[in-house]
Design goal:
Number of helices: 14
Structural class: alpha/beta
Mean pLDDT: 96
Shape: globular
Helix content: 40-55%
Largest sheet: 7 strands, mixed
Strand order of the largest sheet: 14-15-16-13-12-18-19
Number of strands: 22
Radius of gyration: 23 Å
Bound molecules: adenosine-5'-diphosphate
Low-confidence stretches: 1-12
Distance between the termini: 70 Å
Length: 485
């Protein structure tokens, strides 16, 4: 069955987009529905020459896009946002078909992605720079911001449109031109978004999309002198490859990499309610979220109650096809990811963890990359579930006695993206949140991110920021202009 094509784009095409033209390639790759395991589309896999053409097109379009002023760019970006909202229902169905997530989540993702285009349409108008008071009267100084130039944007599959929107919208608003490489697992969503960019009237060459061999794209973007920056969303493993390469070419990087979020639960909260909410939070996008809570660090006095409440809530979650409105949890993206989740759970059980629920593929869903929502308790710092990013519907629980012990456990990871804390104790919340070595701390909430707020990881979770004003400045250079008078 083919993925639903929507008719909101000017050309409903699943092709590469190079210099304003939809392009085929000699080779094609399959896009698989992770729920049905069937091929839903074949998409072109571009060559190195396609990529070079895209970079050249972006390079040629740069001077025009840069000198279109921020207000003109803003009008076009707002049109993209409007088209995204108008088409959200159809577009979300495409995302469900290739990513497996529930339709409501996919629809919400498209709507939030539209907000990024609106936000950066406005924020781009405010990147005006500033003047300085010089220490001599015969000098005037000002700092202006200018777009970096051609930017390569490589993104992961877990949020097929959100990952794109936050980078594409910021780069375009800043006046950069882009060469985007979406994930091979979710290219259809990216091609749909590119169709809307074309339909909105963004000039040819400003935004290009090339689905092609990932290693080749990474290397070619690094090697081309016109490419001034690569923004990457994906694994820490690939982030390190790009950092290695950039050390030779001086290409600027911003990296949004893995996470392994702790969640500290103090005894003064409503434990059954927090346990049930934690299960729901973990189930978002089947746990395939870099800020998904993974390591639940629970005060020993409420540990058993938390585990009971959470296991009960996990067992009630409905797995199934994302197009079924009753579905709360779709499949994982592919068999490799499901096998990684299963192996990590098995390793932790061998190491001494206790399985409280789940821990296997659901018997009633033999087709599709499903895995049961799982809770493993008695997880210790050396266990696989504590150390590895799980990226699946699996929670681990570890007891602690004193908040200092919880802080040490929370920080005992190479990752530093998001952390969570549940407490009504004001002083404890200030002390603990300030001691956590993470770029994002959610206190008494699970969605500690917003279009307007900086999103970025410490330690091996990345460098640079997405979202908010900080996300815009990732695509702007500063220039000091000092004038003698
Ligand atoms: P995941 O395991 O979550 O898919 P990856 O880091 O492998 O994460 O993939 C994220 C994105 O990076 C995808 O678009 C993928 O094609 C791309 N990618 C994979 N390997 C490389 C590489 N060597 N250089 C550049 N991009 C890569």
């Amino acid at each position: 069955m083919a993925a639903p094509r929507n008719n909101t784009t000017s050309q409903a095409l699943y092709k590469n987009f190079i210099g304003g033209k939809w392009a085929d390639a000699d080779r094609t790759g399959e896009v698989i529905n992770p729920c049905t395991e069937t091929v839903i589309e074949r998409v072109p896999l571009g060559t190195s020459s396609d990529l070079q053409q895209a970079i050249e097109a972006a390079h040629n379009a740069f001077s025009g896009w840069k000198s279109a002023n921020a207000w003109q760019r803003s009008d076009l970006l707002r049109k993209v946002a409007t088209l995204m909202r108008e088409g959200a229902a159809d577009l979300a169905a495409v995302t469900v078909a290739e990513a497996g997530k529930p339709l409501a989540e996919a629809t919400g993702e498209w709507l939030v992605a539209a907000q990024f285009f609106d936000w950066y349409a406005e924020e781009g108008k405010r990147a005006g720079g500033h003047t300085l008071l010089a220490n001599r009267n015969n000098k005037r100084m000002m700092v202006i911001h200018q777009p970096l130039g051609v930017t390569g944007i490589i993104t992961a599959w877990n949020f097929p449109v959100w990952n794109l929107a936050r980078a594409w919208a910021a780069a375009l608003a800043a006046g950069c031109t882009i060469v985007a490489k979406p994930s091979e697992y979710t290219p259809l969503t990216a091609m749909q978004l590119m169709g809307l960019i074309e339909k909105a009237g963004i000039p040819p060459g400003v935004a290009n999309l090339v689905l092609a061999d990932a290693d080749m794209v990474g290397q070619a973007l690094l090697d081309h002198p016109a490419v001034r920056k690569i923004h990457f969303v994906g694994s820490t493993r690939v982030g390190k490859i790009l950092m290695d390469g950039a050390s030779r070419t001086h290409t600027r990087l911003s990296l949004e990499l893995g996470g392994n979020a702790p969640c500290i639960i103090l005894p003064d909260v409503d434990i059954p309610a927090v346990g049930a909410a934690a299960a729901l939070a973990k189930s978002r996008n089947c746990g395939q979220v870099c800020v998904s809570p993974q390591r639940f660090l629970v005060h020993r006095s409420v540990y058993a109650d938390f585990c009971t409440a959470t296991a009960a809530a996990l067992q009630q979650l409905r797995l199934g096809n994302g197009m079924d409105p009753a579905t709360q949890l779709g499949p994982l993206i592919n068999a490799r990811q499901r096998d990684h989740v299963a192996a990590t759970v098995q390793d932790s059980l061998r190491q001494g963890g206790t399985l409280l629920c789940g821990g296997q593929r659901p018997a009633h869903l033999p087709t599709g990359y499903f895995y049961e929502p799982t809770l493993v308790s008695d997880v210790e710092p050396h266990h696989a579930l504590f150390r590895r990013e799980i990226f699946g519907p699996v929670m681990s629980a570890t007891p602690f006695d004193h908040p200092d012990e919880a802080i040490a456990l929370a920080n005992d990871t190479e990752y530093g993206l998001a952390a969570y804390l549940w407490t009504n104790d004001l002083k404890a919340s200030v002390r603990i949140s300030e001691a956590l070595e993470f770029g994002i701390v959610g206190i008494n909430e699970w969605a500690a991110h917003a279009v307007e707020a900086p999103f970025g990881g410490w330690k091996q979770s990345g460098q640079g920021y997405e979202c908010g004003a900080e996300g815009l400045y990732e695509y702007l250079e500063k220039k000091l202009i000092s004038t003698g008078v």
